[in-house]
Amino acid sequence: MDSNGSVGLMDLWERVYLWVTARIKTVLLIPTQPMPDCPHCHQSVPEEAIACPFCRAPLKAFGHPGIPLYQSPSGSLCATCLYHADDTCTFPQRPYAESCTLYTSTEQSPEAIAYRPSWGNRFRGWIGQRGGWVLLGAIAAISLVLALGNR
Length: 151
Description:
Layout: H1 9-27, E1 70-71, H2 82-85, E2 99-100, H3 110-113, H4 119-129, H5 131-149
Antiparallel strand pairs: 1-2
């Protein structure tokens, strides 16, 4: 809203766009997930929204749609954060942060948090780190086989 209480043209177009896209998804029967709520005004907002269209509160970190911004409606996030619990948090606002990009709840199961690459990815990573030594060992092994074979 402007200072005189009227809705700005951009706000109007943004609301029309959200309304039209919601109707298109409904008509085409595209399965939709429940829209998340804004932590400030508690209005439903689209998943891809960078800022709340109602109160303009930021919903994504640094204006990037791929970086979620976890926010606490009251109090600090640090009390329930895994990084704070194991003392690996490097966030400058710790332990009083009310918004954070790294927040991970301590109530989540460790299996859901830990990333375990497949054997193939681990092998490729191991070879990538030690490629020079592997190549040198292969050359030495081939040289040894050729030397013993020519006796």
